[in-house]
């Protein structure tokens, strides 16, 4: 990497000679202006207004335009003799936690390289001190004709510096937020959280400039005399009328795009139907005259239960609790025969008599 500035880091009484290099590079595709009729390049020439002629770079200097339009020349010597200590020095003024720096202030990024063998020791000292303190250094430096603010931090085994805007250069967000009175429900926040969880994290190294890649394909196709392939027309976005529906649809789409890995237990659960209950006496209408229907007595378990209750009543001489239904079912020999099936042959005359005695007792509905 080519250095763009040489100077030193001032760390108290310690001076660290360094070289400043750009830490980033632009991969954007640049264009030239041409004359559409014949393809000729359109160029800009630097012309002196007073002499009406083109001038060379050696003849061009700097000047400040005053309020009345007059020009005040400023030479390079004027800039180098400015009474500031940061003309060729990155002066560290404080050490603060990194979270104190507002990302809105961050600008260009640079690498600071140790310049020569004598700079290796103090350079390493500053780097390790920043690591151990978990803080960043705030510094002032002069670059391209003006004093700037910078933040020094450790990146790998190197020290990087981010150019910072001065605090008064960051605008306040007045009039940016929507008017007051907007209420967000807990259900909407829950869906927003679910959407964030579904989207999850991503490795930033996997992201790339798809627009630049598509543009390079167009340039390559036209250079080869081919027709660039047409890209599919993007679908027109629909109007969001229901925020909850939009959030639910977003969560659903995100889960589908992720292959259903985090679809959730609710979506992946097995649905089983409950077994149907056998027909009960509640489906049979009551007979007129207050008598219970005996059509459901054909169930063998019910008949056995009735027998047990009747035998208890015979042994004690008292009707068992809730034996009214069983007694009434056995009052009619024909009905009892249907109700007990094979068990009807085991009944005796004494049990029938007992059933008749208990028949008048009616069970409350």
Automatic annotation (TrEMBL):
Superkingdom of origin: Bacteria
State if ATP-binding is listed as a keyword. Answer: no
Q: Which InterPro entries match?
A: DNA_bd_Ku70/Ku80, Prok_Ku, SPOC-like_C_dom_sf
List the residue ranges of the region (Disordered).
Answer: 252-365
Domain named Ku: residues: 52-181
Classification via CDD domains: KU_like (cd00789)
Q: Where is the composition biased (Low complexity)?
A: 291-300, 311-324, 332-346
UniProt keywords (A-Z) are:
DNA damage, DNA recombination, DNA repair, DNA-binding
Q: Say yes or no: keyword DNA repair present.
A: yes
Composition skew (Basic residues), residue ranges:
354-365
Quaternary structure and partners: Homodimer. Interacts with LigD.
Similarity comment: family membership: Belongs to the prokaryotic Ku family.
Q: What is the role of this chain? A: With LigD forms a non-homologous end joining (NHEJ) DNA repair enzyme, which repairs dsDNA breaks with reduced fidelity. Binds linear dsDNA with 5'- and 3'- overhangs but not closed circular dsDNA nor ssDNA. Recruits and stimulates the ligase activity of LigD.
Q: Indicate what this protein is called per its UniProt record.
A: Non-homologous end joining protein Ku
Which source organism? Streptomyces ambofaciens
Q: Which gene encodes it?
A: kuA
């Amino acid at each position: 990497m080519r250095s763009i500035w040489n100077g030193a880091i001032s760390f108290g009484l310690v001076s660290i000679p360094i070289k400043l290099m750009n830490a980033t590079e632009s991969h954007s595709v640049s264009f030239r202006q041409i004359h559409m009729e014949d393809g000729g390049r359109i160029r800009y020439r630097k012309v002196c207004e007073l002499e009406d002629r083109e001038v060379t770079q050696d003849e061009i200097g700097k000047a400040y335009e005053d309020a009345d339009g007059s020009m005040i020349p400023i030479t390079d010597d004027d800039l180098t003799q400015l009474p500031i200590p940061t003309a060729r020095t990155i002066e560290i003024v404080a050490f603060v936690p990194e979270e104190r720096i507002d990302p809105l202030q961050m600008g260009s990024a640079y690498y600071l390289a140790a310049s020569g063998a004598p700079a290796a020791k103090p350079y390493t000292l500053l780097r390790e001190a920043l690591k151990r303190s978990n803080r960043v250094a705030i510094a002032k430096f002069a670059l391209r004709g003006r004093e700037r603010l910078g933040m020094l931090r450790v990146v790998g085994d190197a020290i990087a510096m981010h150019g910072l805007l001065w605090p008064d250069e960051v605008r306040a967000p007045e009039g940016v937020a929507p008017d007051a009175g907007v209420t967000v429900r807990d259900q909407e926040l829950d869906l927003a959280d679910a959407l964030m969880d579904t989207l999850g994290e991503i490795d930033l190294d996997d992201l790339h400039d798809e627009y630049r890649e598509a543009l390079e394909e167009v340039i390559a196709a036209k250079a080869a005399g081919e027709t660039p392939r047409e890209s599919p027309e993007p679908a027109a976005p629909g109007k969001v009328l229901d925020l909850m529906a939009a959030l639910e649809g977003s969560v659903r789409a995100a889960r589908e795009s992720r292959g259903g890995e985090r679809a959730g237990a609710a979506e992946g659960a097995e649905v089983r139907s409950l077994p149907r209950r056998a027909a009960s006496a509640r489906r049979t209408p009551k007979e007129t005259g207050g008598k219970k229907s005996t059509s459901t007595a054909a169930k063998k378990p019910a008949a056995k239960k009735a027998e047990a209750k009747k035998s208890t009543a015979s042994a004690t001489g008292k009707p068992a609790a809730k034996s009214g239904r069983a007694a009434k079912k056995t009052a009619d020999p024909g009905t009892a025969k249907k109700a007990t099936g094979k068990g009807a042959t085991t009944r005796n005359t004494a049990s029938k008599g007992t059933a008749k005695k208990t028949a008048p007792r009616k069970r409350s509905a």
